[in-house]
Amino acid sequence: MDIWWSLHLRREPASVPLARRILLQTMAAAGVDPDVSYEVGVALSEACANAVEHAGPEQAGSGDDGFQVTAAIIGDRLRIEVADSGPGFAVRVRRSGRRRVQATGPRPAGTAAANRTVKAAAPDLCAESGRGLFLIRALSDSVQFRNHPRSGASVCFDRTLTYRDHGERRGRPFAHAS
After folding, report:
1. Where are the domains positioned within the chain?
2. CA distance 20 to 40
3. How far is Cα 133 from Cα 152, in angstroms, rounded to an integer?
4. pTM for this prediction
């Protein structure tokens, strides 16, 4: 059985544990190994916390001060995307003239949208912040950071799942309690 869900949440701190709780309960119901669920929950929490903290104030007239979380479990793969309507990631031009998405802060106004994979150095372990993107990369199989053409950014990450029974759930219905 495949599972897909999407949430539109307010850009406030209380939304972070709500999104994580829904993901963890979904994975528990699907029989995902608790250790894998925990790691994915941390990655989701970091992505949501970044959307809450860095998306910036709502744009005048947009009426949208939230962010969206979409998750899909298909067989043994989990894909999560967290998208916001903020300024997006900064775009830095390399010496070669190629653009690179800088996932450390908002992009300057008027920059073109970009879809790039970002490589990051290890964070300062003594800093109060700045470890979220590093943790998402460390706890996921692959990560993409994207700027949207109009405004906003998204973090999309994938993870291979293992199940409590060490088998694959592909095509098998959930067990029902009697």
Report:
1. 3-121+129-160
2. 9
3. 16
4. 0.73
Task: Give the C-alpha separation, 145 to 115, whole Å.
Answer: 7
CA quadruple 17, 11, 23, 130: dihedral positive or negative?
negative
pLDDT digit string (tens) for 77-116? Answer: 999 999 998 777 766 555 555 554 545 444 334 433 344 3
CATH 3.30.390.50 fits 3-121+129-160, yes or no: no
Q: Strands across the sheet with 153-160, in order?
A: 3-10, 66-74, 77-84, 153-160, 142-147, 115-116
Q: Residue 63: in which H helix or E strand, if any? A: none
Tokens at 32, concatenated: 């995902």
First vs last C-alpha separation in the chain: 20
